Fold this protein.
Amino acid sequence: MNEETFNMSIRKFLKKVGINSQREIEQSVRGLLAEGKLQGNETLTVKAVLSLEGREDVWTIEDKIKLE
């Protein structure tokens, strides 16, 4: 295995996840605000689920996002 290639591939994947996740969260929150389902002062729980081909286990990363 080429460590440099492996590391760069992981970084590329994480960048893609970060950009796409931010966009989806922003759109979802804005939509919920527009629908009146959020007030705009909440703290929301967000979860990311990660899996790897060939592995049965799944990793969940959970945190809070404050709107105000």
The longest strand covers residues 43-51. The chain has one domain: 3-66. Helices lie at 3-34. The beta strands are 43-51, 58-66.
